[in-house]
Amino acid sequence: MGKTIFIGDVHGCLDELLSLFNKLNYVPDKDRIIFLGDLVHKGPKSAEVIEFVFKNSYETIIGNHDYYFLKTLEGKSKPYAEYENIISSLTIPKEKIISWMNNFPCYIKEDTFLAVHAGIDPDGKCIEENNSDVCMNIRYWDSANNNFSSITEHQLKKSDGLIAWYEAKSEYFDQFNLMIYGHSAKKEIQFSKNHRIIGIDTGCCYGGMLTAYILEENKFVQIESQQHKQFDY
Ligand SMILES: [Mn+2]
Fold this sequence. Notes:
Blueprint: E1 4-7, H1 14-24, E2 32-35, H2 46-55, E3 59-60, H3 64-73, H4 82-89, H5 94-101, E4 107-109, E5 114-116, H6 125-128, H7 132-137, E6 140-142, E7 147-149, E8 163-164, H8 171-174, E9 179-181, E10 190-191, E11 197-199, E12 209-214, E13 219-224
Parallel strand pairs: 1-2, 2-3, 5-9, 9-11
Antiparallel strand pairs: 1-12, 4-5, 6-7, 6-8, 10-11, 12-13
Helix pairs in contact: 3-5
The structure holds manganese (II) ion (MN).
């Protein structure tokens, strides 16, 4: 049986991604690669990362930065000047990238796992409704108002009454042996209290690590970032 390999937020860090593949013992046509989204932006080689993933037809869940990038490619928005440089560096026709990215799912749900870019709400409503806004952006859950929040850790106030989404009480979560996500960059791999929800965005683009998780071996594989260290990485 092949392995299922999840890869955290790459954010344009091609060199680290290639080093990670060297360390994974990945077997093409047998193993399954699932990128947890945010292939682009922040790092130095976003166009090259997109083309690497495209050419190898690896599965990718859509992240918030992939979504903004896709909208820019489609000419529907212009959120970051940097995206223009990424677009001009692409060697594959824009139309091919657009139709490929439009098929990125906002989650992948199997009997053995649920994989998503940012997270899900405790009643699983975003899965039922295919709500990419929640799946791509959630960080906290507001149980008083039954709503999600996408604010960062730095914007969080004690008075907010928000809890990390994966610590919300949820019968929906209990059905999964593993839920895996990226999006919230942290120095360490994040585990929920019951260790069944795992966050593997370890801030490669900020000088942290690029992390993969091999499901069948319950094993993490990490590569040290070559990027300039920012924040407390
Ligand atoms: Mn993200």
